[in-house]
Amino acid sequence: MQRRPLVIAVCCWIAGSSMSHLCDGSPFWLLWIGVSLFIPLLGWISRFPWRMLLMLWLMFTLGAAYWSYHDGRNESALSDLILENSFDSAATLNTSSGSKELLVHVEGMIMSAVEVDGDRADFTFRLKAVSFPGQASDYHTADVSGELLRVQVRLASIEEIEVAEKWQRGQQLEMAGSLEKPNVARNFGGFDYRDYLRNQRIHWILKVTGATSIEVAADSQISPALLFGKVDTARRLLGDRIERLFPDWQAGYMKGLLIGLASELEPDKYVQFSQLGLTHILAISGSHVAINVSLIFGLLRLFRVTRENSYRVVFGFIPIYVLITGFSPSVIRSGLMTMIGIYLLRRGLLKDGLNILSAAALIMLLWEPYLMLNVSFQLSFIVTAGLILFVPLLLPYLRWLPTKMAGAAAITIAAQMVSFPLTIYYFNQFSLLSLGANMLLVPLIGMIALPGGTAALLLSAMSFSLGKWLAYPVRLLNTATFIVTEWLNARSGFMTYWKSPSLLWIAVYYMALYLLLYWRHRSRIVRQADLAGIDDTQPLGPLLQSGGWQERRRKRRWELDKLFSLRPQQLLQAGLVCLLLIQLYLGYLPLNTKGRGHVQFIDVGQGDCALITTPEGRNILVDGGGTVSFRKPEEAWRNRRDPFEVGAKTVVPLLKKRGINRLDAIILTHADQDHAGGLLAVLEHFPVDALLINGTLSDSATMDKLMSKALRKKIPIYEARQGMSLKIDALTSIQVLSPEADDTSDGHIAYSREQNHESIVFTLQMAGATFLFTGDMDEAAEHRVLEEIDRQNRLRLDVMKIAHHGSKTSTSLEWLEYWQPASVVISAGASNSYGHPHPTVVERLNALGSSIYRTDEQGEVQMEVNNSRIRVRFKLSSSDDGLLFFWYS
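Above: the chain sequence. Below: its structure as tokens.
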């Protein structure tokens, strides 16, 4: 603390900001009082100087106050304006989902680079004025200068793409569109777009139809945004040159590597990097800055430029490089640290890496407090701090390697150990091949691809043919890089999935890891000092002589003293190793604890998906949702580079976040896209022990791909038929009620267009509760099941999943009167175009007295079963973010 007061002070600032973020109201003040009372106790126990403790308390308090001040001001003036005025229903386009869409006309300025992808253009927009229809059908105009909006422009034709690509930061626009609130997370642990935008001080989305709805001002005012617009143009020109130097997919990869445009890398290539923990290569960071600064220093030394002038050149180069590479938190951090380091070198002041890092963090958090919640900011600073602290502690273990290789290995190992908690917290996956992939590929990319690509780009400005010639070996290396990543990703069994750990788990992990390495390092120093002391004061020769009992006694006593002096440290180190192992074990356990059953109806929009976890930890996925597209082939230009697919974007991330590492079975009730489409991504990411289908196939590309993938992965495929009984574990069993067995089958799987009628219908009995899953069965299938079922032994039904999203073609009155479900779940998309659930079905359920849970209104519905009692919670309440809990027998 005495040597690094700035480090401790910044840590206290971040702790205060974090407490203010995590707690609000009374809990915040109680914690603040507790910390304030703990400070004198800490001073009495540790005997630290009171001035130091007072300074730390002050930094903690200022950090909390600074966050509270900015967070309290992060409100929408537009929201207040809408609440203060009353508007007629003509202004409101849609209020069924609880979010208002209002017709508005806005004026303002583009504040971000315009992202054109498929038929959509996105950018951030700063309002100057807004007007909207009022009760008297005229326009109310209001000054909301400074408010930020996220604008989404739906392009009407392929020609409008060129128009949108000409928009740039700093331009003044006028446009009309519909205003709506961003979506909240609809599943537990899901991505919250509203919270994500709020951290960028954005509270509303403006949806505009067609580029013709936007009018660009002839002259733009001089502003910082206009300067950034010129930088965007320069980046775009550099990107075009990179495309000429590196063809096909390599262009997107090199754009990310050289100028930070990682979004243009092909999605499948990005997934390969992501699964091996290599995406940091595409994020411009300290290594990129260090390599480019080293190149500049080398060139300046070659031309015999003085050291002082070299410092000036590099000091001026850093801000330009930060701007050109996208102004991301990681490159800002590395740029600030480099500039502070150069300044300290010029002044001849004592420099310390952690103090420089802390100064950079404080500057950035004073500039924008919400950076504390940014994943790139967190990873950049924590990994950098980890390298400073851990690399010296790891180097003694790597002395058997050559010096440079040992240094590179220590950096890679330290980065992996330090980034591990945040990696599993945010991305919920970790490949056991990640360390090897980083040690193999990062040096090659950093030493050859990055400087070679930079040199080729710069040389091409003077002679494009020379630049292309220099780019050729880099292209070969890029091809080899992705051959290696593809081969590594093809190795099965090395990917692990982790639930998001708690903040306490992360804190204990870092503390135990550092103390273990630090104490081992101290023990090594003490042991070396002891040996050195013996060599200087007591020659070993007399001790080794056979004669002289005094010498032998002295040697034995020294060995016993050494043993007992080391034992406490060894015990502590062993305890820390055990603690780390226990931490990893607890972190790897799935989110749902054993001993209780869980049925989770995941909100996948207009589709079905349910995860069943039995009391003994077996996982069964029923359907996987799917994105339905009615786009014609001639509209392929509308497709995005990485289109939204519910399996890859919703189901797979949620399974990872809940610590699911394998699925014991997947039950595909039928082959419709909204049930089967999402399973393609599930089979790609998770080992699956069995796939149950209804015994028929549909003539669809999705089903063909699904069956091909299952066969390629050697997943056993079973046909579910009426009368089939499955014993999952001691407390869980499944009874199939439909479809009926086909005695005429000749061993081939038949094709059926009536997939709804052929849906798998089954009862799940788990821990004393009974669930009925119905797929999309129609009324004809319901009547057939009722005719063949044993009415004398009717099960008491606790929960029924309503068929076909509440369509009027199923859930007949006879069906409901037979089962008499205590509760029902309707899986339907919010504001879906089909009108699901149908009012008639809802009326029948209300008349029956069943409790109704709907994913379109309540988001994900989770049920926990224990001793015949069911605990229910759902993600959304009327306030969009509430949780309600119920118990019933």
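The CA atoms of residues 21 and 71 lie 8 Å apart.
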